[in-house]
User: Which sequence fits this backbone?
């Protein structure tokens, strides 16, 4: 008999799935715009990895006892449980690097904690992600050293701390240890923290991305049923 | 959009990989990166056409030529 799933795990897994899906899309948006050809290829590869991770995480929800996804996800961009850093496409390479180094690593720290935890489906299915995430980490950490201090880094770190939650002290320490640098002085207003979306900042993903997530952008370019019938 | 400067100094790395433990490592390509970490990430992302059981990278400057084309 499998062990009972601790309360709140489904919510964390869904937020992780949403964050990974958005992170994968944002990486992909940069796959022909990074400073080097090698980084272009890495952006594409990491984007595919994170989209795959999102699918695996979403696939675990039905086995966790309660799937928190409701019909509001078809109409409300704010129903997605992603960090605010992923709401809009990035306009600066430093934002890519900050997300890659800080947020992607924060998600990895949470995955490690789930792999070490009591829930069997997470212990087994999420393990492979850690091997892939090692390359994301190497990429992010090296570029983080390259860009130096930047407001994007502080913003990403603040949102990572919020996402790890008010009881995520141990995970915060693990994040800083991995990045081999002390956590910067951050100002987090926990009174405004949304425990479902794991963020303090209001707002939601942009309309174009929301359409893509629901497959509407794809349908714009697809053959309609009427066209297919007319074509014989 | 402002562009970040590209790395001040880079190294070339040769990439070797094999599909099965019984296979020898073979040269599959090359990457250019400023450090070993990024070289690993780039090698894995660039040469992912196979399910390698092993991949290694070697800085080109660490390679010692024993014989070369055209030498007696």
Assistant:
């Amino acid at each position: 008999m499998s062990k009972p799933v601790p309360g709140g795990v489904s919510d964390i897994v869904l937020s992780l799935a949403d964050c990974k899906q958005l992170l994968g899309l944002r990486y992909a948006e940069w796959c022909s715009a990074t400073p080097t050809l090698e980084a272009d290829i890495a952006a594409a590869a990491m984007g595919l990895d994170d989209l795959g991770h999102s699918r695996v995480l979403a696939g675990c929800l039905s086995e966790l006892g309660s799937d928190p996804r409701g019909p509001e996800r078809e109409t409300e961009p704010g129903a997605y449980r992603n960090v605010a850093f992923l709401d809009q496409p990035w306009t600066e390479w430093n934002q890519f690097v900050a997300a890659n180094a800080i947020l992607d690593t924060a998600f990895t720290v949470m995955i490690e904690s789930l792999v070490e935890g009591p829930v069997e489906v997470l212990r087994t299915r999420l393990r492979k992600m850690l091997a892939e995430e090692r390359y994301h980490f190497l990429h992010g950490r090296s570029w983080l050293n390259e860009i130096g201090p930047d407001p994007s880094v502080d913003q990403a770190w603040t949102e990572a701390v919020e996402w790890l939650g008010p009881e995520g002290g141990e995970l915060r320490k693990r994040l800083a240890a991995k990045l081999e640098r002390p956590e910067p002085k951050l100002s987090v207003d926990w009174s405004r923290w949304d425990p479902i979306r794991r963020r303090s900042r209001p707002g939601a993903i942009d309309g174009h991305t929301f359409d893509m997530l629901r497959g509407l952008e794809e349908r714009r370019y697809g053959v309609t049923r009427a066209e297919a019938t007319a074509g014989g | 959009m402002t562009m970040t400067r590209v790395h001040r100094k880079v190294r070339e790395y040769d990439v070797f990989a094999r599909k099965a433990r019984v296979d020898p490592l073979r040269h599959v390509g090359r990457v250019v990166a400023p450090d070993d970490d990024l070289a690993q990430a780039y090698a894995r992302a660039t040469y992912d056409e196979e399910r390698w059981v092993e991949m290694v990278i070697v800085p080109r400057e660490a390679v010692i030529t024993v014989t070369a084309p055209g030498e007696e």
